[in-house]
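Researcher: Next entry: cyclic-guanylate-specific phosphodiesterase (Natronospirillum operosum).
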Amino acid sequence: MGTKKRIQASKHSATGKFALPQSVKARMQLYEGALNATSTAVCIALADAEQDDPIIYVNPAFESITGYNREQVLGRNCRFLQGNDRDQPSLDLVRKALREHCSCRAVLRNYRQNGDLFWNRIYISPIRTEAETISHFIAVCEDITLQKVAETRASVARSEAQFRATHDTLTGLPNRYLLRDRLQTALDNAHRTAEPLAVVDIHIDRFSAINAELGYVIGDQILLALAERLRQHLGAATTLGRQGGDEFLLVAPGVPDETALSAWCLTLNELIMKRLAVKPDLRLSASIGAHLVTNAELTADEVLRRVEQAAERAKREGRNSHTLYHPDIDSQPDYQLVLRSEIFDAIQEGQFLLHYQPQMSCRTQQILGVEALARWRHPKRGLLAPQDFIQIAEDSGHIVALGEWVLRTACNQLREWVRLGLNPGSVAVNVSATQLSRESFTDSVHQALEDSGLRPDLLELELTESIMFSDASVTLDKLNALKKLGVRLSIDDFGTGYSSLSYLKKLPIDRLKIDKSFISGLPDDQHDSAIVRTIIAMARNLNLEVVAEGVETLPQLNFLSRHFCDQAQGYYFSPPIAAEGIYALLLEKQQKRAGGKDDQPTLLLVDDEDNVLSALQRLFRHEPLRILTAGSAEEATVILAEETVEVILTDHAMPGSSGIELLRHVESQQPDIVRLLLTGYSNPALIASGIDDIAVYKCLTKPWRDDELLDTVRQAFQLHQDKSDP
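Model: Predicted structure:
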């Protein structure tokens, strides 16, 4: 009634030159003129189910978007725009809204008169008479096809980048990083089943000479044909991958003993020696190292080192043979000696490249920066990770030249992303104690910033805890000089060294990075949990940010978020990937922002149990929502003070303040937020007395029904939207 009175009052007060025309005809002409002038498609249908809700009006924009003129659509139901494409989840929302005479928003696949697909963002609203009956439905339509095409391209680019990060670009086989993960999984399975695991390292003999004589194009064709031959020969249970260059790795369960393993290696070499169609006059051979793992306590890196040693022994013994690992094999020093002699030329010849790992906000999961990580594109051994060459670079004295190259390259790359209008945040570069000890290091950093044009605050230098054992006064002077340049400083792998806390408080650092060894056991390992909580609490008291490394699971992320860790990086978000992959991620983020996706409504989930939060996040992961989580009412209060939230769903019983106390606080401070309560009581009426004084939209019980909870949350957002619309 209040609304009607206001409308009537406005009719009487709208006089003078600003008043609407008095005659109905004149007003209708004015309204139709406005609809005809708008670029947004408008369609009005009669609310008459017996006549199939026929269209009675479309504006010119509707005709332009669909290709149909009004004579072709009047009297028809709007469903003709879907053609035969009727199995769309969003159509269920539309049908429900029409049945229940309520508003709805949806994105539909529609088809123009010529059959072309277009994406239609539609808003449908009922029109009510003075008697509160529904007379018509009005639909406002927007063609968002270009936006959808851009999103699809960005998604494809991201998928391709992620595939390239874990697979060999030539053969499509798992690369050394994915192989390592799969080997570790196989070792874990072997530990559970107490069965042996065979690991075989295949090095094609003298393949560098083949490349030199025949060229890399033919060399690649040979490797591709050989990979396909191996793939067809091996069973589905065997993992085949390319370590890089001329090296393949096999991981196979079900090999009973070393006699069977030796026989299998002979078979593999015979398979490799068969002529290939791509080069029939060429006969390949291989040096094969193999190990039958019966000690499940070994790590993937230890097993890889063992088969590498065995393969090196096979090479030294004349090639075209295989060697099974045994403890007295000691070829690793030879391998390191070769790399030591090659690393200087590799720096000069540009064999190094950078991969970047995103650093994400624990709370919003937005990219806040990247860490630059060096890779060695070795002409024979493929792509080598830092653990394969950093210590060699340190020991040989080449770490300074390599570090300067990393610094310059990272600054230039970040500046390029900024120039392209992207927002990558900061870039973190690892700095060794040897680099920091050089008198010219500060000048090198200043020169890299000058040459690249990068803002100093966008560069972060990651230092190891070992700097604390250098000359204290000299180190402190150098760090202060770096801070004067405007760069940010952090301590990497914090907790693994022998940190002096009295010294730590004197350092002009900005943040700590928790080593991944403490993250892997979260949230179940009590010792890891206690250490991580302590580091975070200490850092906050020292006004330092905290970054967690090696985050691989959602429960780990939830634990970190609940304890106010600022950022995280790890395979849960993304492995280290090439610059092109980061570009795709940043471009997708920018396109989402341009398409309004960054303005998605926000749902805050509050529960003190990590498994419940994880289950809720999985339930809502396909909804067009931004999801924030909190592990306590106190944490939720902090988030509410910093973030815009439309709907909050909180557990009833939590340590500290309860869910009811939290909702009472929300009602008093932010009454527009729609409030939902989740309780473990089987009868919600039992807690009704506790919520009589607050407006809770709905109270649901645990365990919940997914469909019921989804519908309730959707209705809550619709309620917030209805209250927000003028």
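Model: Note for the record: Residues 1-17 have pLDDT under 50 and may be disordered.
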